[in-house]
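The passage that follows is intended for readers who have already worked through the single-chain material. We present the inputs for a multi-component assembly, then the predicted structure in tokenized form, and finally a short commentary. You are encouraged to pause after the input and sketch how you expect the pieces to fit together before reading on.
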Amino acid sequence: MKKIIVENLKYKYPDTDQLALNDVSFEVEEGEVIGIVGQNSAGKSSLCLALTGLIPHFFNGAYGGKVLIDGIEVKTSTITDLSQKAGLVFDNPFTQMTASKYTVYDEIAFGLENIGVSREEMIERVDWSLKMMGIENIKDKNPFDLSGGQMQRVAIASVIAMRPEILVLDEPTSQLDPQASEEVFRVIQQLSQEGITIVIAEHKMEKLACFTDRILLLYEGKQIDFDTPQKVFSRDDLHDYGVVPPIFTTYCKAMGMKNKNNNTYPVTLTEVSSLLGGENNE
Amino acid sequence: MTLYVKQDSPIHEIDPITKVIYALVAALLPYILPSHTVALIVLVISIILLVVGKVFRKIIPLIGLSLFLIVSLVIIQGIFRPDNVTPLFHFGPIIFYKEGLSYGLLLMLRVINLLCAFGVLILTTKPDDLIQSFIQKGMSPRIGYVIGSVLQLIPQMSATIATIKDAQRSRGLETEGSLLVRIKAFLPLIGPVIMNSLISTRERSIALEVRGFNAKQKKTFLHEVHTYKYAKVIQAVLILIFIFAILWRIFL
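Having made your guess, compare it with the prediction:
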């Protein structure tokens, strides 16, 4: 089933001349992991906002085309209704804390209180989120006393407690240290295994190559490509769009090591190793 | 940034609304009935409640803070009150009068009483419980959020200000010295602080939006309403005392 359908989406922020999103069209199947790549101001964040209804309901501006989230048209829906379909996590862990709650447990329950979930279900959902994110040990701490990585996991927990079927992440690890990023990527992969459809904008290409099914390449608001990581990262014109492919791809390109089956360069260490006849070869 | 003291006491058990009514009635009584006895009785009751609530020691620094105001009230009233007639004692040429001192004492009792009465509420009630009670009584959740978040955002903001101050100083901005230097440093400091707050506010409002802050549904609460067996009785008694005091003042 198609979870996300974007048709000819165009969007311009108020008081700007340039289109932030220019004719973007793609479809995402249930359970897929989609990576959004592109240089700064390519439209990654705008697309994330458009998938969760913040565009056009929170940011005004000129809007054209259509976005369907699980069959619901974004333009005629509300942010609250969409928040139970598609959750949004963004880069700054601090501003994602509501600041009105004194414990992580209460913080995660905030959204559920707003949408009127019953107490029993609330407790069950919060416990599930804590377990998914592996943060049960910090549930009684004040959210502002946590490290960045823990805080970001609390932010993801608060969003998945709303039980969205789609999770949109806008550079979730860009303000975190390597270890904290690793933790966040691990929980994202775990969520994907739970069957949640994931859309993630990210600059860490090696990570994206490991666990995304398809990559959406954006440049100045335009959609350049939407294909498997192997195909997108093997493009010769990638540098023109300000995207640096995974280190493995760069290396294999320089060495002329191509995967003969699909005529692409490897994007992960496992693929390189298998190409070289390593132990992962099947 | 909260004065709440976590303790296990009968006062902590009482529901927030009852404590709010107590604080209001206790603070107003000495004004409705302007006698030293009434102020003293109410004050003693508040102090007993603070002691039972195991928070009496926390109120002392608060009273200490207002001591300057209190002492100056007594001295000024003692010397200058217009209806001063009976001299009581004197330091050199300065004469203290009985009427003024007595009135100053009443003012002093009222101030301390006010602090203690609200101390019972603030020191023994979790701020989020208090806000939740108000929301359940019909206050808008938006206002509840504003009150609740300010308590946590102010420390966050002062941390940001400290960071920006350090950053500007590392670029050579003079922030210490004469008044002129400080005034000159004000703009380069306040600019980034304001910009930073605007950005955080926008991001936080996005975070709130995606968590259903504007939902039309009726809100539910994670924590059960803090019910107290005798809440209704105590509230009724407090309100009766209040009405009785007003009637007493008008007719007697």
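Commentary: Chain B touches chain A at residues 126, 128, 131, 141, 144-145, 148-149, 152-153, 155-156, 200, 203-224 (CB under 8 Å). Strands of chain B lie at 87-91, 94-97. How closely did your sketch match?
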